[in-house]
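Sequence, structure tokens passed on for absentees:
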Amino acid sequence: MELDVYLICGRGEKGDKFQLGQVFNKEGHYFRDEYDPTTQYSNMDELQEALAKMVNVDKASLKLNRINL
């Protein structure tokens, strides 16, 4: 499964974390209200784990594509 993710960078006390701004699947479904936009992530691995749980797939089968809006 592939998801397109828009990240908001520069978060956290040191500016080294990011938040998930938007997430879409390849069919264009926007996962609005299905994730917590206030959660701050330290790395893409943490985000991938959270999104795999959200869409109920194995983490290894999930590919994340960063997008710019």
Summary: Helices lie at 44-55. Residues 2-66 form one domain.
